[in-house]
């Protein structure tokens, strides 16, 4: 699972940078911190999301997180800071996918709680008392808890 980590471009400590244009976002381009130290390398560009590979993690960053100066791309975090942010987000995501954790639907409404979870399936106990079993990839964890890509009404309709 890739997490979208957004950083405000205003936090960049570079004097007078212009925001990077689409031409600056190329696979293989280096990304530097405000002291011109290597943070990582761009491994993918998908719309407004740029994936940067550091020595440890891959981070999906919004294009607004970057600044361009003298043909180089910069972000406002060091490699160690970016690693720590992604590792922390991954830990929060994992912690939200446990039995008893609250689950939100695609609209952000409370859907129920995780009743069981394994490598293949997750069973959610809905507020109505019904249970619905979904493929494990049908639920995502995050800092705000677990979320499914369906509405409560959809889950109720497919409940056992």
Provide structural commentary.
The protein has two domains: about 5-95, SH3 type barrels (Roll); about 100-160, Photosynthetic Reaction Center, Chain H, domain 2 (Alpha-Beta Complex). Helices cover about 15% and strands about 35% of the residues. The protein is built from two helices and 13 strands, in the order βββββββαββββββα. The chain has a seven-stranded mixed β-sheet with strand order 1-5-4-3-2-7-6, with helices on one face. A six-stranded mixed β-sheet has the order 11-10-9-8-13-12, covered by helices on one side. The longest helix is centred in the middle third of the chain and has 17 residues, at about 80-95.
- Give the N-terminus to C-terminus distance in angstroms: 28 Å
Q: Please tell me the CATH architecture of the largest domain by its name.
A: Roll
What is the C-level CATH assignment of the largest domain? Answer: Mainly Beta
- Catalogue the unreliable spans: 1-21
Strand % is 35-45%
Helix percent reads 10-25%
Shape: elongated
Q: Class by helix and strand content? A: alpha+beta
Total of domains? 2
Largest sheet: 7 strands, mixed
> What is the H/E order?
EEEEEEEHEEEEEEH
Order of strands, widest sheet: 1-5-4-3-2-7-6
Protein name: DUF5666 domain-containing protein
Keywords: Signal
Organism: Sphingomonas caseinilyticus
């Amino acid at each position: 699972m890739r997490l979208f980590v957004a950083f405000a471009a205003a936090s960049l400590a570079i004097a007078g940078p212009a925001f990077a244009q689409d031409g600056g976002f190329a696979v293989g381009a280096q990304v530097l911190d405000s002291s011109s130290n290597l943070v990582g390398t761009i491994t993918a560009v998908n719309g407004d999301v740029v994936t940067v590979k550091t020595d440890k993690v891959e981070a999906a960053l919004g294009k607004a997180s970057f600044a361009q100066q003298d043909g180089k791309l910069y972000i406002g975090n060091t490699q160690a800071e970016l690693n720590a942010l992604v590792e922390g987000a991954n830990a929060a995501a994992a912690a939200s996918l446990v039995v008893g954790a609250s689950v939100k639907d695609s609209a952000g409404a409370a859907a129920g709680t995780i009743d069981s979870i394994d490598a293949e399936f997750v069973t959610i106990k809905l507020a109505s008392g019904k249970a619905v079993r979904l493929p494990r990839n049908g639920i995502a964890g995050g800092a705000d808890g677990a979320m499914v890509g369906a509405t409560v009404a959809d889950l109720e309709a497919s409940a056992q």
